[in-house]
Amino acid sequence: MMLVHHNNTITGVLNTDLDQQTGLQAEVGLKHNFDDKAIVSVTPYWIWIDDEIYYNPTGGNFGWGANENYDKTRRIGVEIGAETDILKFVAIDFLDGLHYFANYTYQSPEFSEGTYDGNDVPLVPRHQASTGIRAGFLGHF
User: What are residue 38's phi and psi, to 5 degrees?
Assistant: First the structure.
């Protein structure tokens, strides 16, 4: 839905030409626990998407942008992750858990049909990484 300002009122405009996005995903993974001190995982995946919904900032009837559909797209990638409980190596009395985790994903996001067949899908990263710490304390937090 898009909001349109007209005669000092705001109304919604619904894109009735937008098709529902559908897809199929397959993945298989390996996970290994290293003596309850670290867990490492590797997960390759394949995703096929029909009518992927994206925001076109220059689309729509009023030039304010609109949601539209891409042709068929696919993503082939692999996610690598690791997690460890730091308290297995260092004692901190008031903490119940102190987990460090990190993930890295490589993917190839491409159009698989239509005008842009073989080109990258815009704004979808090839490389993505995240890291963080999860802490537990006082038995309930």
Answer: -150, 145
